[in-house]
Amino acid sequence: MGEMAGVQSLVSFKALSINPCSMKLPCLASLFAALMPSLASAQVRPPSAERPPGPRLTTPAEPGSDLTITLLTMGVGEQVWEQFGHNALWFHLRRPPSSGGPIDVVYNWGIFDSSQPHFIPHFLQGRMLYSMGGYPYEQTLIEYKERDRAVWAQELDLTNAQKVALRDFVIWNSRPENANYRYDYYLDNCSTRVRDAIDRVLGGVIRATFSGRKTAYTYRSETLRLTQRQALLASGIDIGLGRPADRPLTPYEEMFLPMRLRDYIRELRISDGNGGTRPLVKSERMLLGTVTHPEATAPPRWTPTFLTIGLVIAAAFVFVGWRGARGSTGARYGAGILFAIWSFGAGVLGVILALLWGVTDHAFAHRNENLLLFNPLWLVLTVLAPMTAVKGSLSRTTRWLTFLLAGLGIVALVLHAVGLSREANGEIIALALPPVLAIAWVVYRGTAHPATIPA
Questions:
Q1: Less Cβ crowding at N or C end of the chain, within 10 Å?
Q2: Residue 2 has what pLDDT?
Q3: Cα torsion at 324, 330, 331, 332 (round to 10°)?
Q4: Pseudo-torsion of CA 313, 314, 317, 323, nearest 10°?
Q5: pLDDT tens digits, residue range 37-58?
């Protein structure tokens, strides 16, 4: 009776705002009921002419025997939130035409609603709420085909009892009072939720198998690998990540990425109940391919490029500073403007990094050594640099401030040189340190041996 009441309570439509890591799609809550086992499978066969009449009951099918569960993995896409891929669990219930035919529902944990109260403040503070829900399988494929995103399907070889347990957990999780969760882009996201749901019915096999060794990957390297097609975005993320993003990951932790979960699940073997093992993945196929969104296989190597950019900027600073020191009025104005632009950009970045560390829950932006290169002190130089370059005002203060900023940059370099740094920010040092040293040299040369500046 309890099970029948549960079935009846689920036979209702409820419109949800669904976004599988990006999109808003209608969730058909009424499809949940199709995942519950039927209690009306026993029937009476009509009496045969050759046999005496009498009741003959068929044997009910074992719960879960008509259910197939498949891990769907969606490849990278064009939008920012699509560049890490996505995944979901596809529940296929076999039903005869007389009962309405098969039912296919896809559940994912990547739903967010930008219209929810305080969305932007929560996003900035690292306190976003995500939720989970289900929607039709056919609609899923249509959406990803339109976006030219690859989709892989891995049927899971679970026992009937495990399938029933996973089905029941997903239905429980999809209830409004259970659907929301506090999102963390590395530790608790749409992929880790899928991983944990599967591991829940396997008795912790995934965690036990993949937590005992380290890989060569880090949260930073994986993030840069997948965002490198948008260089400005990737560079901003690189600057914003701190030391916590640079520790080597276990395969279990790597499963924050849907594609890594797909790869590791592919090699997992589980108990067959008879003293042996069997692959967890019963079969695998590619449902959709992609032409425009191939997945990068390695993180970018940007240090030479960033160093070249840093040296070019430094050379420009030295040139205008040298010309200004020789008495060129235009060069002095040019130096003041260039130094102010750099100082303002570095100062704003410094404020952002300080706030990320000091007042937000973005744990992977904490303990960020890039504050040695970009910090709020640069905002002071935004005002002082033009005054000193054009009029020679406050030259002593400007000189000591540039020495301090250059010294902090050198500290960042030395920490790497002597092996004390655990932050993989060598390319950021290559970009930022040459301009800082150039500004310090120009200010020192101009204030130690100032040219005659007209009143």
A1: C
A2: 37
A3: 60
A4: -120
A5: 332 333 333 444 444 454 555 5
Identify any residues that bridge with 153 across adjacent strands, giving them in sequence order.
72, 285
CA atoms of 434 and 206, how far apart (whole Å): 47
Calculate mean pLDDT across residues 325-345: 91
Q: pTM of the full predicted structure?
A: 0.83
Burial 28-60 (b: 16+ CB within 10 A, else e): bbebbbbbbbeeeeeeeeeeeeeeeeeeeeeee
Asked whether the predicted pLDDT for residue 70 surpasses 90, the reply is yes
User: Is residue 35 pLDDT above 60, yes or no?
Assistant: no
The CA-based dihedral angle spanning residues 209, 213, 219, 221, taken in that order and rounded to the nearest 10 degrees:
-120
CA distance 287 to 269: 24
Q: Residues 267, 278: contact at Cβ < 8 Å?
A: no
Q: CA 378, 380, 382 angle in degrees (round to 5)?
A: 75
Could you report the per-residue pLDDT of 208-227, keeping only the tens digit for each? 999 999 999 999 999 999 99
The partner residues of 290 in beta bridges, in order of sequence, read none
C-alpha closest to that of 192 among 157, 294, 181: 181
Distance, CA of 134 to CA of 72 (rounded, Å): 13
List of residues 6+ apart from 175 with CB closer than 8 A: none
Contact 426, 416 (CB under 8 A): yes
- The bridge status of strand 67-74 relative to strand 86-93 is antiparallel
H or E element, residue 131: strand 129-136
The residues with which 386 forms a beta bridge, in sequence order, are none
- Dihedral of CA atoms 136, 139, 140, 142 in degrees, nearest 10, equals 160
Question: CA 422, CA 391: separation in Å to the nearest integer?
Answer: 43
Average pLDDT, the chain: 86
The string of DSSP codes covering 263-313 is: HHHHH-EEE-SSSSEEESEEEEEEEE--SS-PPPSS----HHHHHHHHHHH
Q: How high is the pLDDT of residue 14?
A: 32
Nearest to 64 by CA among 90, 89, 94: 94
Q: Which helix (H) or strand (E) holds 396?
A: helix 395-417
pLDDT tens digits for range 88-142: 999 999 988 888 888 999 999 999 888 888 888 888 888 899 999 999 999 999 9
3-state percent breakdown (helix, strand, coil) of the chain, nearest 5: 50, 15, 35
Q: In this structure, what token pair is assigned to residue 175? A: 């209830």
Say whether 380 sits in a helix, a strand or coil.
Answer: helix
Q: Which DSSP category does 93 fall into? A: E
Structure confidence at residue 46 (pLDDT): 41
